[in-house]
Design a protein that fits this description.
alpha/beta; six-stranded mixed sheet; 172 residues; two-stranded antiparallel sheet; globular; Rossmann fold; 31% helix; 6 helices
């Protein structure tokens, strides 16, 4: 299987995935967002066509139906609505039918700032979360909002963690 990890490369996740015989493709989507949109107003810059083109050239440029799974983590909650739609469409195209994607969203819909994390798979029961700082989410993400966001996918399942994160598992 080919797995996409958008938390950036780290040895724990690489070892875990490759020990099962799978291929792993890594990119730090949050770092790419900071590099493309971080100079000035982060969300306003996501409306700049030149900056959006640069971001899309740097990330998510894989062939259609290339991946059997994607670990998106908490990155989607920092994308403005128009760019989020484009990114979700690209992820849908890159995933094979029947494959799954994991995304996380802060469950506090009224929070003005939320903690962002870098994620590392330690073993089949443990995911390490390294804080990366506080960030403003682009919008509140309720269950209904997430269902609408992933409406082109076959199924959407929600789980609330004790860390106040909403785990969303989406099947294409």
């Amino acid at each position: 299987m080919n797995i996409l990890d958008l938390a950036g490369a780290n040895q724990g996740t690489v070892t875990f995935v490759t020990n099962y015989g799978h291929g792993l493709y890594s990119d730090d989507l949050l770092l790419q967002m900071d590099e493309c949109f971080g100079d000035g107003d982060f969300f306003e810059n996501q409306l700049n066509p030149r900056k959006v083109d640069e971001f899309l050239k740097r990330t998510l440029h894989f062939p259609d139906e290339h991946f059997d799974g994607a670990l998106v983590w908490d990155t989607l909650q920092y994308l403005s609505a128009p760019l989020l739609t484009v990114v979700i469409e690209r992820l849908w195209r890159m995933l094979r039918p029947g494959s799954c994607m994991l995304a996380l969203f802060n469950a506090n819909e009224h929070a003005e700032q939320v903690q962002s994390y870098s994620y590392r798979i330690a073993d089949h029961r443990t995911i390490g979360m390294q804080p990366r700082g506080m960030r403003r989410p682009s919008q509140p993400f309720s269950n209904r909002t997430l269902e609408k966001l992933f409406q082109n996918f076959h199924s959407v399942k929600f789980f609330l963690t004790r860390d106040h994160l909403r785990e969303v598992i989406v099947r294409r």
